[in-house]
Design a protein that fits this description.
It comes from Sinorhizobium garamanticum. The protein is of the alpha/beta class and about 280 residues long. The protein contains 13 helices and ten strands. An eight-stranded mixed barrel has the order 1-2-4-5-6-7-8-9, surrounded by five helices. The termini are far apart. Bound molecules: ligand C2E and magnesium ion (3 copies). One magnesium ion (MG) binds next to strand 6.
């Protein structure tokens, strides 16, 4: 009996695996089509400089406008794109799109995320150089965001790649700082221009807790190392005020804008008048 029940369970398990595999295959097929059918879009989120209260940069974030699923988040297809290698083509497409788009926002830098898979691709340097040449974007206006995971497996070749990218004149940001292995040695050994403090820390802050202490320390660390600090995931006026007070250089988050389509972003940029912080009330508290 037990054996029979076991077999039945196994069959259910097998059927479920099969379903998941089918669903994955379907998604993979759709994703290949997406690239060909131009269903991918790039949305843009502003980065605000805390000294000048002006928008100084924009992060390019890919989305997939699926015919039946609606707007699919990168979290739901980037992993598959990475497993299948499709990320290399998608990444290049995003890079070119974002660089071209940035030409119409001449006062801004544009940040583009690089997958570790792209990073391991031997053609990366060539690709970035070609995109810069094709689009005519000034290299200093392009910022490439990488996560710590690219540094872990092969640090010496990672260093070569980063140096080659720096030689092109582009800037390098460490994204999601604090979520990976966060070895401080990485900040020392690699040529980062910017540290982006992961939004999990920003979301947890309330002025006196551990997350606030960590955020404060990373800002100080960035200052000492002469790197720009950016806080991601800023959703409230209190967080913006705290970060201003602590000397963070830039902030990014839903408090100002969600990632939006290029046309909308142009309007957002035209209407931007800065924002208020409430420093006096914080000082009093
Ligand atoms: P990321 O590079 O860390 O991008 C920031 C993510 O935080 C974006 O999610 C953005 O929408 C979200 N975010 C910004 N402000 C807030 C906020 O105030 N609150 C909250 N809760 N979230 C906020 P998104 O667009 O879903 O992208 C997720 C991740 O997907 C990105 O994280 C990045 O790792 C990856 N990704 C997006 N576009 C690309 C791409 O073109 N290439 C590659 N390789 N990865 C990409
Ligand atoms: Mg990013
Ligand atoms: Mg990030
Ligand atoms: Mg992230």
């Amino acid at each position: 009996r037990a054996k029979q029940a076991g077999r039945a369970t196994y069959r259910i398990f097998e059927a479920k695996m099969d379903q998941e595999l089918q669903a994955r295959k379907a998604l993979e097929y759709d994703l290949r089509q997406a690239v060909l059918k131009h269903e991918l879009e790039v949305h843009y989120q502003p980065l605000i400089d805390l000294d000048s209260k002006s928008i100084v940069a924009v992060e390019a974030l890919v989305r997939w406008r699926h015919p039946s699923r609606g707007l699919v988040s990168p979290m739901d297809f980037i992993p598959l794109a990475e497993e299948t290698g499709l990320i290399v083509g998608i990444g290049e497409w995003v890079l070119e799109k974002a660089c071209t788009q940035a030409l119409s926002w001449p006062q801004l830098r544009v940040a583009v995320n690089l997958s570790p898979i792209q990073f391991r691709n031997r053609d990366l340097i060539e690709t970035v150089r070609d995109v810069l040449t094709r689009t005519g974007l000034e290299p200093a206006r392009l910022e490439l965001e990488i996560t710590e995971s690219v540094l872990i497996n092969d640090a010496s070749s990672a260093l070569d790649i980063l140096n080659a990218l720096k030689d092109l004149g582009v800037r390098i940001a460490m994204d999601d700082f604090g979520t990976g292995y966060s070895s401080l040695g990485y900040l020392n050994s690699f040529p980062f221009d910017k540290i982006k403090i992961d939004r999990s820390f920003i979301g947890d802050m309330n002025g006196k807790d551990k997350s606030s202490a960590i955020v404060r320390s990373v800002i100080t660390l960035g200052q000492s190392l002469n790197m720009t600090t950016t806080a991601e995931g800023v959703e409230t006026a209190e967080q913006a005020t705290f970060l201003t007070q602590e000397g963070c250089n830039q902030i990014q988050g839903y408090y100002f804008s969600r990632p939006i389509a290029a046309d909308e972003f142009t309007i957002f940029l035209e209407n931007w008048t800065g924002f208020e912080t409430n420093l006096s009330s914080v000082a009093a508290a």
